[in-house]
Specification:
pyridoxal phosphate, seven-stranded mixed β-sheet, Aspartate Aminotransferase, domain 1, 2 domains, arginine biosynthesis, N2-acetyl-L-ornithine:2-oxoglutarate 5-aminotransferase activity, binds pyridoxal-5'-phosphate, EC 2.6.1.11, alpha/beta, Aspartate Aminotransferase, domain 2, pyridoxal phosphate binding
């Protein structure tokens, strides 16, 4: 179907941070399939885990216990605020489950009138009808109405506006701790803590969409760890399976108590093959020193971009983000820059606010960072000469 404006490029093989096109060209992948391939391509441990599981059992449904789910959930419980985890197949689905939980929590606690959810300007939460409504883009909603009721939008980062928008009908708050598709917009200092405080005052749940920010992308397992607060619910997907489609909703006991047996479900969600992939990803991401590499490579990229910026003014306006969730706000059109970078065999991803995202695999090395910086410098020189 004509739903994508695809580049005329097809890859037949990947190895670490490199992708090989059918025509033999080799690309350095600083897009990671939109923040998905967190260990690069064909990572041996991931390949082995999936291959071994494929020989045993792929799918059994959630009518039975799935040991891989129990193992993965236990790891999240150990390493995050969460007490319990639900598994699904994508980011939008994880967010849908979270939206249901935000409302149902109030309902089971005797507040069925509290069913409205505060969402942010510039937000992206997925392409289902519900998550499109939670997201900010009018363009993505156009022609798909009527949209569901019960969402109130506030300016991302503005605590006063958030407080003023809370009414006796508010159930909870959904935000991305760093907005991804919106152009790598970090929450301002103190915003997440203030949001938590307001939620506690009014008995609201706080949900973070960590579909893009999670699984080590920012140099912590989840981005909320950079703040001094805990959310009640977070959604995860993208990097979770390292390229295998899988999503998860993590919640504390209080929030999760709202979803009793039969209240939510997924046929494929958390099947043994997906769990083998996600557990293999966590084997690597939770290794001592893994996050140190994310932060060290982040610094190398930022330092390199600062030098390029100084040498070629009029190309990069600003660099934003944390860890390897980086955005270059461009002076020239971001789409044109992505194409020129691709001509230099470097893959990147555009985002809102004229941003080019740099989302390399989290295990990249200095050599590859230098290679990417050289490509960016060549394009900067071409644009500014
Ligand atoms: C990608 C993304 C989604 C949607 O995930 P899908 O797997 O495409 O449904 C939702 N929220 C955020 C923040 C994302 O980056």
């Amino acid at each position: 179907m004509p739903t994508y404006a695809r580049a005329d490029l097809a890859f037949e093989k990947g190895e670490g941070p490199y992708l090989y096109a059918q025509d033999g060209r080799r690309f350095l992948d600083f897009g990671s399939g939109v923040a998905v391939n967190c260990l690069g391509h064909a990572h041996p441990h991931l390949v082995e885990a999936i291959t071994e599981q494929a020989k045993k059992v792929w799918h059994t449904s959630n009518l039975y216990r799935v040991p891989g789910q129990e193992k993965l959930a236990q790891r999240f419980v150990e390493h995050t605020f969460a007490d319990t985890v639900f598994f699904c197949n994508s980011g939008a689905e994880a967010n849908e489950a979270g939206l249901k939980m935000l409302r149902r929590y109030q309902y089971v606690n005797g507040h069925s009138e509290k069913n409205r959810i505060l969402v942010a300007s510039n937000a992206f939460h997925g392409r289902t009808i519900g998550t499109l409504t939670a997201g900010a883009s009018d363009k993505y909603r156009e022609g798909f109405g009527p949209m569901p009721e019960g969402f109130d939008r506030v300016a991302f980062g503005n605590l006063n506006e958030l407080r003023n928008a809370i009414t006796e009908k508010t159930a909870g708050i959904l935000v991305e701790p760093i907005q991804g598709e919106g152009g790598i917009m970090p929450a301002p200092e103190g915003y997440l803590e203030g949001l938590r405080k307001a939620a506690d005052e009014y008995g609201l749940l706080v949900m973070f969409d960590e579909v893009q920010t999670g699984i080590g992308r920012t140099g912590k397992l989840f981005a909320y760890e950079w703040s001094n607060m805990l959310p009640d619910i977070i959604s995860s997907a993208k990097g979770l399976g390292g390229g295998f489609p899988v999503g998860a909703l993590l919640a504390n006991e209080k929030a999760a108590a709202a979803l009793t047996p039969g209240m939510h479900g997924s046929t494929f969600g958390g099947n043994p093959l997906a769990m083998a992939a996600a557990n293999a990803v966590l084997d690597e991401v939770l290794k001592p020193g893994f996050f140190d590499n994310v932060l060290a490579m982040s610094k190398l990229i930022r330092d390199g971009l600062a030098k390029i910026s100084a040498k070629h003014p009029g190309f990069i306006d600003e660099v934003r983000g944390t860890g390897l969730l980086l955005g270059m706000k461009m002076v020239p059109n971001n789409g044109d820059v992505v194409v020129k970078l691709r001509d230099q065999n470097l893959l990147t991803v555009p985002a809102g606010d004229n941003v080019v995202r740099l989302l390399p695999p989290l295990n990249i090395t200095k050599t590859q960072v230098d290679e990417a910086l050289a490509a960016i410098e060549a394009v900067a020189a071409a644009f500014t000469s």
